[in-house]
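Give me the fold.
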Amino acid sequence: MKQKAESKKQKAEARLRLPFVIRHSSFVIALAGLFLAAPFNARAHDGPEHDIEELTERIKVEGESADLLLQRAIEYNVIRKSSEAIKDLERALHYEPQSALILRELARAYLATGKTNEASDTVKRAIKHAEPGAELGSAHMIQSDIRRARKDYGPALDAANLAIKEHADSVEWYLTRSQLQQQLGLKKERIAGLDDGVKATGSGLLETEWLDALIDGGKADVALARIQTELEDARLKSTWLLRRAKVRLAQNKKEAAKADLEAALKEMNDRLGRSTPDPLMLMDRGQIQELLGNKEEAKKDYEAAEKKGVADEWLRERIKVLKDDDKKKEDDKKKADAKKAPSKQKESEDKSGDDLKTDDKKDDDKADDKK
């Protein structure tokens, strides 16, 4: 029973990590293969809602414990019922007030509800009680997420560096650090950090992120050689066409970039038309649409991906940028309309004046006729 419970806890924690990495193609393709290979009934009855029901029943039968409350809270966090998770985790702390794992998950739940002060205080306690290594590193990463949510990107990067120093095997943490370095314009550090990550983990996921960092860091020629190889071997080419388009744009080859983007969009539309849209493809198509200047279509794809459960900071930032663009256009239109209003009013007044003059003239003419 204990082994089964531990397995469920690890599975729930794995689910919490999925929204971040879902935008990276190699990971999602592998994940999709595993999902499709699993028997339908196993998938249908092994979701978080089913686990919550099972854990609730166990709590009724066995009574509350820190472990059972923690497991249920993790499942609640997965399905974004953070308020329910907070209740369970606060109860769990009554049983184990110095548990770094409970404190970490409570900080995560506070963050999900926007309570960054409570999240920050709680994660500091988690760091204090965490064992060196993966446990401490995980607490530092939650601290990084909290600081990032507050737009404190420098301190967020410091926390991510501490996490990787404690545990250098997490692909997700290298990706988080990469995003923060990109946000801060640390291009050389981003390339070097991802290179370290590839060497430490052997991850193809980090290698593709490294290619993006090379493009962003002015080393497009290096990236292009690898992208060309992938394009030759790939059956589905849209992801690599998107990357090559970014290289072309960096090289100021706009027409070639446009051709790649249009080819990628055609393939993406065909794929999305044949199946239920998955978040990765929606995000990739959103990027393609945005680079083609189709901002409204890009926003629709990004928002659709978010509705499907993607909780990635990069995605939220893209949606915000596009919404801000919409607001700016709307404000500019209102200002333009406001400037036109006085002139229209003047035209109306002039017309009214002309009408009065015409009426006066008609009255004069009638008076003359009577005479």
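The chain has 19 helices and no strands.
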